TrEMBL record:
Keywords: Cell membrane, Membrane, NAD, Oxidoreductase, Quinone, Translocase, Transmembrane, Transmembrane helix, Ubiquinone
Name recorded for this polypeptide: NADH-quinone oxidoreductase subunit H
Catalytic activity: a quinone + NADH + 5 H(+)(in) = a quinol + NAD(+) + 4 H(+)(out)
Family per record: Belongs to the complex I subunit 1 family.
Keyword Membrane attached: yes
EC class name: translocase
Subunit structure, interactors included: NDH-1 is composed of 14 different subunits. Subunits NuoA, H, J, K, L, M, N constitute the membrane sector of the complex.
InterPro entries in the record: NADH_UbQ_OxRdtase_su1/FPO (IPR001694), NADH_UbQ_OxRdtase_su1_CS (IPR018086)
Principal place of residence: membrane
EC number: 7.1.1.-
GO molecular function, one term: quinone binding
GO BP, one annotated term: aerobic respiration
Length: 430
C-alpha cells in the first residue's frame, strides 16, 4: 500500500486522465464490437459504411447524441431528473480507480503500479460504488413522472437487491482463499500453482497450472457470472428497460446528452463487471498458462495487454447472451436469484469454510447435490399436478401456459366471427 502514497500529484493526474481516455475509447470500440459480433451471429454485415470496418459508426452515434435536442417533460423533478444520469456516469468511472491493469513499474523514476490506487477493502469499495450507480436509475424512474419509467425503476431496485446479494456472496470464497480484499493482493495470490490434495491422505501434487480462482472456486465464478448480467441490466435480464413492455423503462423520457450518459454508463458497467471477474477469478493482469512459462513474459508492462484481452473475452459473453437468449419472465428472474443463487452461494461458503484445501472436490460434490435436488424437485412437481381433469388456461381470467404433465382440452371446431362484422365475437361448437 505504501507505493501509492509515494506517488506525486502529477503522476496521479496522469493515471486519472489515462484511465478516462481508455474507458471512453474502449466504450466506443465495444459498441462497434457488439454490433459486429451480433451481426456475425445473425448472418448480417453490421456497420460497414462509416470509417474502416464501420469503426466510425459508434463515434457518429455518440456525436449525434451530444448535439441532439435535449428536453425535459413537464411535471418532472428538475433536480432529480438531472442528477440521475450524473450519478450513474460518475459511479461507472469511479469503480475503475481500484482495478489493477498491471504490476509494479517505474514511471519517470518513480516506483508505482499500473493502477490509480488500491485499498485494503477495494472489492467492497467496488460493490459500494455499484450500488450508488443503481440510484441513478431509480431516481430517473421516479423523477420522470411516467408510469413506464417508474415501473422500470422499481424493477431495477428489486433486481439490484436480489442479484447484488448473490454477487457479494459469490466473492466471499475469494476472500477466504486469498486472505485479502485488496484487488492487487488477490491477483498476486492467483500466481501460485494449484496443489491437488487427496482427501483423508497426506498425498498432494502440483497440477502444473496457475491457481485461478475460476478453477478453484468454479461455483463462485458461475454465480458471479450470472449475477453480473443481472446487475448490469443486460439481456436476458434487461427487465428495467424491457422495450416490449415498458417502452424503454427508466430511460423513456431521456434524450440527448443525458441519454448518452446512461448509454455510456451501461457499456462501462459491462466492462467493469468483466474486469472484476478477470481480477477476482481469471488472474487479472497475470499471463495465462502456458504463456507464464515463457521467460520474460511476466514483464509488468505486458500486464495491461493480458488484462484487456481477458476483459474483452468476458465482455463477449454479454454479446453472446444478447444475440441468443430471449428475455426472462420477471417471476422466473426473481426465482433464480432468491431460490437458486443465494441458497447455493451460502451452502458453497459453508463448504469452503469447513475444508478450504479441497475446493475442487467440494465443487464436484456441490454439483452432484444440485443435480440430485433438481431431479427430485421436478418429480415432486409432476406428482402434485392432477392430470385426470383437463387444464383450463383461462380459469383465472388470464391465459396461463400449462405446466409439465397438464394437457389443454381439445377444441371441437371453434368458429369465430371476424372482427368488424358487428356481431359479438364468440366461439360456437359445430
Amino acid at each position: 500500500m505504501n507505493v501509492f502514497f509515494q506517488d506525486p500529484w502529477w503522476l496521479i493526474l496522469i493515471k486519472v486522465v489515462a484511465l478516462f481516455v481508455i474507458l471512453l475509447v474502449w466504450t466506443i470500440f465495444n459498441v462497434w464490437y457488439e454490433r459486429r459480433l451480433v451481426a456475425k451471429m445473425q448472418h448480417r454485415l453490421g456497420p460497414i459504411m462509416n470509417g474502416p470496418f464501420g469503426l466510425g459508426q459508434a463515434l457518429a452515434d455518440g456525436t449525434k447524441l451530444i448535439f441532439k435536442e435535449d428536453f425535459r417533460p413537464q411535471g418532472t423533478d428538475r433536480l432529480v431528473f438531472n442528477l440521475g444520469p450524473l450519478l450513474t456516469g460518475v459511479a461507472a468511472f469511479t469503480t475503475w480507480t481500484v482495478i489493477p491493469f498491471g504490476g509494479q513499474v517505474e514511471i519517470f523514476g518513480h516506483t508505482t503500479r499500473l493502477q490509480v490506487t488500491d485499498l485494503p477493502v477495494a472489492v467492497l469499495f467496488i460493490i459500494a460504488i455499484a450500488s450508488v450507480g443503481i440510484y441513478g436509475i431509480v431516481l430517473a424512474g421516479w423523477a420522470s413522472n411516467n408510469t413506464y419509467s417508474f415501473l422500470g425503476a422499481i424493477r431495477s431496485s428489486a433486481q439490484m437487491i436480489s442479484y447484488e446479494i448473490a454477487m457479494g456472496l459469490s466473492i466471499v470464497g475469494v476472500f477466504l482463499l486469498s486472505g485479502s480484499m485488496s484487488t492487487h493482493a488477490i491477483v498476486e495470490a492467483q500466481s501460485n500453482p494449484i496443489i491437488f490434495r487427496v482427501p483423508f491422505t497426506e498425498m498432494q501434487f502440483d497440477v502444473g497450472i496457475t491457481g485461478w480462482y475460476a478453477i478453484l472456486l468454479l461455483p463462485s465464478f458461475i454465480i458471479y457470472g450470472i449475477s453480473m448480467v443481472g446487475e448490469t441490466n443486460r439481456a436476458p435480464f434487461d427487465l428495467p428497460e424491457c422495450e416490449s413492455e415498458l417502452v424503454s423503462g427508466y430511460m423513456t423520457e431521456y434524450s440527448g446528452f443525458r441519454y448518452a450518459m446512461y448509454f455510456l454508463a451501461e457499456y462501462i458497467n459491462m466492462a467493469t463487471v468483466s474486469a472484476v471477474a478477470v481480477t477476482l477469478f481469471l488472474g487479472g493482469y497475470l499471463p495465462p498458462w502456458p504463456l507464464n512459462l515463457i521467460p520474460g513474459i511476466d514483464n509488468p508492462w505486458f500486464g495491461p495487454i493480458f488484462f484487456i484481452i481477458k476483459v474483452q473475452l468476458v465482455f463477449s459473453i454479454f454479446v453472446w447472451l444478447r444475440g441468443t437468449l430471449p428475455r426472462f419472465r420477471y417471476d422466473h428472474f426473481m426465482d433464480l436469484g432468491w431460490k437458486v443463487l443465494i441458497p447455493v452461494s451460502i451452502l458453497w461458503i459453508v463448504m469452503i469454510a469447513l475444508a478450504p484445501q479441497y475446493t475442487i472436490g467440494l465443487a464436484v460434490a456441490l454439483l452432484a447435490i444440485l443435480i440430485a435436488f433438481s431431479g427430485r424437485t421436478d418429480a415432486a412437481e409432476k406428482e402434485e399436478i392432477d392430470t385426470d381433469e383437463p387444464f383450463d388456461a383461462f380459469a383465472g381470467g388470464y391465459p396461463v401456459p400449462p405446466r409439465p404433465g397438464q394437457v389443454l382440452p381439445e377444441l371441437a371446431g371453434v368458429v369465430t366471427v371476424p372482427a368488424g362484422s358487428g356481431e359479438e365475437k364468440q366461439g360456437e361448437e359445430n
